[in-house]
Amino acid sequence: MDNLEPKGNILPIYFVADESGSMGPDIDHLNQGLMSLLEEIQLQPFAASNVRFSIIGFDEEARLYLTNADLRYIDTMPTLVARTTTYFSTAFELLTLQIPDDIAALKAEGYRVNRPAVFLLTDGYPMPDDPWQQALQALMALPGHPNILAFGIGDADPATIAEMASRQNFAFKAAEGADTGKMLAEFMSSLTQSVISSGSAVANGQPQLLPEIPDDFLSIDVDEV
Asked: Can you give the residue ranges of the VWFA domain (predicted)?
């Protein structure tokens, strides 16, 4: 008789990165941060074993660079590229397609699956013809809809960031006038610690999302935008 005991809990984490042209001067900071994340996570195999990591880049279209990956067994990270204009709908549409498939695949392997977490990073505004609100609504209608933490740098619009976040306390904007390269480095460091902390919590039987917020990012008060 087959052993039907679940293998344990898995937290799927999606890093969704703006690849619009305005990210060009600082995209290298993101790529360096991804490699640092991989190196740090591989030093924490206990936490890493309970996380599956995906990377999506978006501009006029969205690209799935890494999917449902166990970072203990990844040799290198994909390279993000600054491209054209900002269409958030492409990222939300890809997540709407991908998340159910990823959850189903993990369950088929015998895991329990915690609610996915999306860490979205952008430095821009949506284009006027971008139907991002409808795409976001479809994503959040999924039974396995994610928790979305939205982070804005540079010229990102606080009102848009606040609307994308799935909770009032999940929307953040870099301090006015802050150096973008420094903010990206802080964000990637905090993302790394979020993966480690959340993975450790899941491994210890306390499945919860434990986001680490970068020092120079401010919580957006949605009552004041």
From this structure: 12-191
